[in-house]
Amino acid sequence: MNSSVRKEYEGHFFLTIPQVCKLYNFSPKTLKRREKDGSIPIPPRIEVGKNRFRYRTDATFKCLEKISKGAI
Q: How far apart are CA 31 and CA 41, in angstroms?
């Protein structure tokens, strides 16, 4: 994973759905489909408030590293 991308999200414990979509280069609907079918590693959503879902930053970058290393 590119260190400049990591630096952009430094200090963020959670990422929003649009931020994760930007990292994966997916639309929100495609991200939701990929979560359902499990075709690529995407960390589970965590509810941080009433109907507010986020992704843990460290788990998201681990999944992106797996994809970039050709594991998937």
A: 11
Average pLDDT over the chain reads 88
Q: Please give the model's pTM, rounded to 2 decimal places.
A: 0.81
* Contact call for residues 45 and 53 (beta carbons, < 8 A): yes
Q: 58, 18, 66, 15: which is closest to 39 by C-alpha?
A: 66
Encoded amino acid at 9, one letter: Y
Q: How far is CA 53 from CA 18, 25, 41, 62, in A?
A: 11, 19, 18, 19
Q: What is the pLDDT of residue 21?
A: 94
Please state the domain extents for the chain.
3-68
